[in-house]
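FAR1 domain-containing protein, pasting as requested.
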Amino acid sequence: MADFCHLKTAIQGLISCSANVNPSACSDNVSTPLDDDVVCSTFFYSEFVKSTSDDITQSSAEILPTSAILGCGTDRTPDNYCKRKYSSPAHDHSSPDHRNASSSFSQCNKPCPVVGQVFPSYELVVQSYYDFASAMGFSVRLGSTKNVVDKGSGQKILVMKMLLCSEQGSPSLILPPTNGNRRKNGVSRCGCLASIKFKRIDRFDNWVTDTVIFDHNHSFTSPSKIRYLPINMSISHTSKLLFSSLAEVNVPISQQAAYFSNQLGGVQNMGCMKMDINNMVRDDCIDLKNYDVDLIVEKFEMNKSENEQFFYDLVKDDEGRLKRLFWADPTMIENYKLFGDSVTFDTIYKTNVYSMVFGMFCGVNHHRKTTIFGGAFV
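Structure tokens follow.
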């Protein structure tokens, strides 16, 4: 009888202990969503909102984080939020992928997303998950979005956002037709279920973490290669200005990368590679091609405002593209008046983009030196 009383007392103690357990400290992979009565604000049901919109869009584009001033690194700040391991009873935890994922979660030094955590802005709530993914070793894709229509302004207001693991989904087996050779890319999508969902709780841009799923079915990137993840590879605005300034003085890209690496204390702190700088220069050239004629006209008009003797003339075709261009500054005009008895038109330079010939009107001065009378694109 005494043993039965001791057993009864022990069972009651276990029940009371289990009732006091914090649900957020459990080891499930899927965090339970918040109750709508708790997290939903009157914003979603107020008179200012016309109706909940079904405007849910999907995007498979990689998104990049807001980088630091001179690069995009991962600041290693110790934190105790991620000192526990996550496991899922629905999967085989003896597999290498799950062992790797479990150990990575236990070694993560960034705050883990917690259901119910409130953020004062959309940028902060997204950046927090970027930092977590960067420290863990996986990249992020845009998921579903939900908008509501404001009755007052008629504009759509973002009220829900999902971020997915970059390996979510399955690869497409039907490839679109192409004219040239198709580039062979590795298949990275493996049906990963990891995701996070944020909801807007009021009209003041406050957001709350609604659902978190940590169920990765793949191994994470090793710490030595985390900096190569797309989420960590970006060139900040300040860095672009630096590269543009170096390019204006004809500094080679290899020397630009070496200088940038030296300033940041190593290649691992750059947040980009030499190939990224090459791609940036390529994109700048493509953008410049669309309005380079306007830049020439703007430059010549500025020269003409500074000196009325500056002369230029251009001809465009029906589509607004440059067809012919001639210019001469005051010095060229004065040299032509003095030494214009003999003029040669040198057309040895030819551009590859527009298939236009660059020619120079040249002569010889009284010192038997070559003098330029004008320039032209024909």
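Note for the archive: The chain has three domains: 26-170+188-232, 235-290, 307-377.
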